[in-house]
Specification:
The relative contact order is 0.15. The protein contains 20 helices and two strands. It has one domain: MFS general substrate transporter like domains (Growth Hormone, Chain: A), CATH 1.20.1250. Helix 1 runs parallel beside helix 4, helix 3 runs antiparallel to helix 18 and helix 11 packs parallel to helix 18.
Length: about 425
Amino acid sequence: MYHILPLVTLMFLLNFIDRSAVGNANVAGLSKDLKLIGYEYNIALMIFYVFYILVEPFSNLILKKIGGLWLSALVVMFGVITIGSAFVRNYHDFLGVRILFGLAEGGMIPGIAFVLGRFYRRHELVLRIGTFLALGPSLSGAFGGLLAGALVKQTIGSVKGWRYIFLVEGIITTFVGLASFFVVPTSPETVRFRNEEDRALAVKRVAIEQLGAQKDKTTSKSLKHGLSNSITWLCCLGYGFINIQVQGASLFLPTVIRTLGKFSTVEDKLIQLRSVPPYIIATCWSIFISWLCLRTRKHGVWIAFSCCFSTIGYILFLTVRNTKVLYFATFITYSGAVPCGPIFLSWAVANASPETSRAITSALVPGVGTWGSIVATWAYLPKFAPRYKPGNSLNVAAARDEGKRDHLLEGLTEQQQTALGFKHPEFRYLI
């Protein structure tokens, strides 16, 4: 069963490469060539997340019914849409493909989390979810930056510059999606390349711990049960704060690097390459933090610990003007933020049962939590360059809030969490 993690990690890596390609394409001249004015670029980024949120629960219910082949279908869909992005000619074309992107990509994170929940025990989920969610945005930034740097100067007919980025990345994604139809598993019972004894053992090791993990019918009662878990909604809140940091960095890091003093004169290719190292470091850090969660079987304390780094990074962006220090700040900022999203998601999924509840939970956390991504698209507007004070100030507050509050639930039962009253992390005073 162990081939499931590399496969879904590859799927999500391609998902995030295609999603973040718009940031590299914009550095290479997308807004200029499409004659985007005012906030049109930010509106197009935001509309992606609106449809991304709406489709997630429905996508997971489809996945629960037809199995892992739905993940392969999603990969093919957003691969084809990425290819189509190479041929947009104006703002309305661009807006249309962003809507289609949202519909196609919305089901990936919740779908993968749901499938992994069938294969791994509850405490094992954090490292597995942490791995694919860390490798996705972090390595997509690295490989996406390297790929964009290599492609931005290439030309095939009328396809050149930023269009070439979309074309090549879309072709690669579509090919992998088609190939995955032959190997993607749905559950331990249906894994290929394993004998009957291994499959039975895989099912038993999960069933022993997750007594409520057996398959159930999707009914209004089971849906209501999935929506009533207080831990799920707390994780949605935390995931949103983290998304402000992670999505803001992935969308605007190349632009931020361009505006950092002496880097402003660097050609597009070198800007893309300078965005690679922060992603690599963040990947290693995220997997390490997820491993610590697995070893200690604690979640909140490591969220608080990691958020300290992103807080320091954003404070540096607000207070320091030295170019080298600011570039260093991108390393600790991204590294501090990246581990927290996977921890929130795995925390919620591990506390959801039976399957319908887990399907809803794995969709709600990244879905509702996407409010942070919508905020991020407006927190780093071009007019705020080069210091981006609104976005960086917001991220200092977000990181501080997560580090201060979410560890309070560590080790408490649901009844004890309710008894916290005004000390509960979700409580907000009215002023």
